[in-house]
């Protein structure tokens, strides 16, 4: 079994969960590229903000648990902010947060089971980091006494999209930390009004702080199937480049259950530290509008947008010119392949629309027009009968798999950079404005040997153009 590289002298290790599709922020956030990878509030993505926040507080290298399909996106975003010491754990399949937390706890416990884990999602916003740091100190003190601690946020409105915590008695010997009397599911609007009026109730932030040992003991007690499956998945893991890949068969045997249901709502050790540090899970477009900078008419605008007589709107364009006129309280989001318009008060219902799109078999529900790959990305430009056109960008030093196709031929035209092309037994160097034709069935590979990104236009032709018409003969990224 391979030992994960984790700091041995760290008191607190951030555990960042980067799963989920964030469908309430569709069409920007989709399964192929969810909201934590987008720059929504500043020059960093939500994932980068989360990592930098824990680093600025003075914590050690994070453990990031993520979907295996997102591993190279995460590695690249960490590289952009100079983080090279994170442990990235790959889930073969999403099984909710309890198995993910258990995997991180098992890994950390291999070196020191008394290390305290601060578990958080990769896609939340924090407005007041010094206040967060003070609250974390209290939570760590309670965790060191054996409690499973969550941050409870002081409610600012009757929110139906959050769960609630009933605050009990203050913990003896741990100032600022309180027992949890009970957890309350996401309430109706009427119930939410009553909860906000009662000072005992807090929003459940979904962040948890406890020793690795405590997480594991409580998982074994209250979710033994999760414990057994994940213990085996971790013990059978393999190193894959810079990642820790959990054993697929073992991990997929774990129940699909959240850490809230599996542990927090069942344990007798639940505690909370009340906080007021500007937390938001950015769970809707309306929430993002509240957090964003606005013009004098209350509009938050991003991208190529023109407004006329619009008030209190959130308008975002990811490419095409978007104009809004004579409206108020709307969310308008345009991407390369979809446009979403909603009243801000109905922003939570976007998730229902995504469900309808999935039921209708629309790929736009889960996949973007831009598809990210370990070597770079490609954009779908045009698709017609028996042909399609893509823009392919390959990062310096990267290469696609050695492959062939049974149903399509390809024509590549280099528009920027330099390409090294394997065509059967030939090696061909292409520069800007040069092209090559790859007949159906020929073994081929594309590489970027240069120092700048390689951009080319690919024209595919044939009776079937699906991405599954790829026979990989050799691949440096360990894809099937």
From TrEMBL:
Residues 14-296 form the Nucleotidyl transferase domain. InterPro entries: GMPP_N, Man1P_GuaTrfase/Man6P_Isoase, Man6P_isomerase-2_C, ManC/GMP-like_b-helix, Mannose-6P_isomerase_type2, NTP_transferase_dom, Nucleotide-diphossugar_trans, RmlC-like_jellyroll. It is an enzyme of class 2 (transferase). GO terms for molecular function: GTP binding; mannose-1-phosphate guanylyltransferase (GTP) activity. Pfam families: ManC_GMP_beta-helix, MannoseP_isomer, NTP_transferase. GO terms for biological process: GDP-mannose biosynthetic process; polysaccharide biosynthetic process. Residues 361-475 form the Mannose-6-phosphate isomerase type II C-terminal domain. It comes from the Bacteria. Residues 309-357 form the MannoseP isomerase/GMP-like beta-helix domain. Its EC number is 2.7.7.13. Keywords: GTP-binding, Nucleotide-binding, Nucleotidyltransferase, Transferase. The keyword Nucleotidyltransferase applies. It catalyses: alpha-D-mannose 1-phosphate + GTP + H(+) = GDP-alpha-D-mannose + diphosphate. Belongs to the mannose-6-phosphate isomerase type 2 family. This is mannose-1-phosphate guanylyltransferase.
């Amino acid at each position: 079994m391979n030992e994960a590289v984790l700091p041995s002298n760290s008191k607190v290790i951030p555990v960042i969960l980067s799963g989920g599709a964030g469908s309430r922020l569709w069409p920007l956030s989709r399964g192929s590229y969810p909201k934590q990878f987008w720059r929504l509030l500043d020059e960093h993505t939500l994932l980068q903000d989360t990592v930098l926040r824990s680093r600025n507080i003075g914590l050690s290298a994070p453990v990031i648990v993520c979907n295996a399909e997102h591993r190279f996106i995460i590695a690249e975003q960490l590289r952009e902010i100079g983080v090279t010491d994170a442990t990235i754990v790959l889930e073969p399949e999403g099984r909710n947060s309890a198995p993910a937390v258990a995997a991180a706890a098992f890994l950390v416990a291999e070196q020191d089971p008394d290390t305290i884990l601060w578990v958080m999602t990769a896609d939340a916003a924090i407005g007041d980091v010094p206040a967060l740091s003070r609250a974390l100190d209290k939570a760590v003190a309670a965790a060191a006494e054996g409690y499973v601690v969550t941050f409870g946020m002081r409610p600012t409105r009757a929110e139906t999209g959050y769960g609630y915590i009933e605050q009990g008695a203050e913990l003896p010997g741990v100032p600022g930390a309180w027992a949890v009397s009970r957890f309350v599911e996401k309430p109706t609007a009427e119930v939410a009004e009553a909860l906000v009026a009662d000072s005992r109730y807090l929003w459940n932030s979904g962040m948890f702080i406890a020793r690795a040992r405590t997480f594991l003991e409580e998982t074994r007690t209250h979710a033994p199937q999760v414990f057994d499956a994940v213990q085996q998945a971790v013990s059978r893991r393999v190193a894959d480049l810079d990642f820790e890949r959990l054993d697929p068969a073992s991990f997929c045997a774990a129940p699909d259950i959240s850490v809230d249901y599996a542990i927090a709502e069942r344990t007798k050790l639940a505690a909370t530290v009340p906080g007021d540090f500007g937390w938001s899970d950015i769970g809707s477009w309306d929430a993002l509008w509240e957090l964003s900078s606005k013009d004098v008419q209350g509009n938050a605008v991003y991208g190529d947008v023109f407004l006329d007589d619009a008030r209190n709107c959130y308008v975002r364009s990811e490419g095409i010119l978007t104009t809004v006129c004579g409206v108020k309280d709307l969310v308008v989001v345009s991407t390369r392949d979809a446009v979403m318009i909603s009243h801000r008060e109905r922003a939570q219902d976007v998730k229902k629309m995504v469900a309808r799109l999935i039921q209708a078999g629309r790929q736009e529900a889960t996949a973007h027009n831009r598809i990210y790959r370990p070597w770079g990305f490609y954009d779908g430009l045009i698709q017609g009968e028996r042909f399609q056109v893509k823009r392919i960008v390959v990062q310096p030093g990267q290469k696609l798999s050695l492959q062939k196709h049974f149903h399509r031929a390809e024509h590549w035209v280099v528009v920027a950079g330099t390409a090294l092309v394997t065509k059967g037994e030939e090696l061909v160097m292409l520069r800007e404005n040069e092209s090559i034709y790859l007949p159906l069935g020929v073994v081929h590979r594309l590489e970027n040997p240069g120092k700048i990104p390689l951009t080319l236009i690919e024209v595919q032709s044939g009776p079937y153009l699906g991405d599954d018409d790829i026979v990989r003969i050799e691949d440096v990224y360990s894809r099937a």
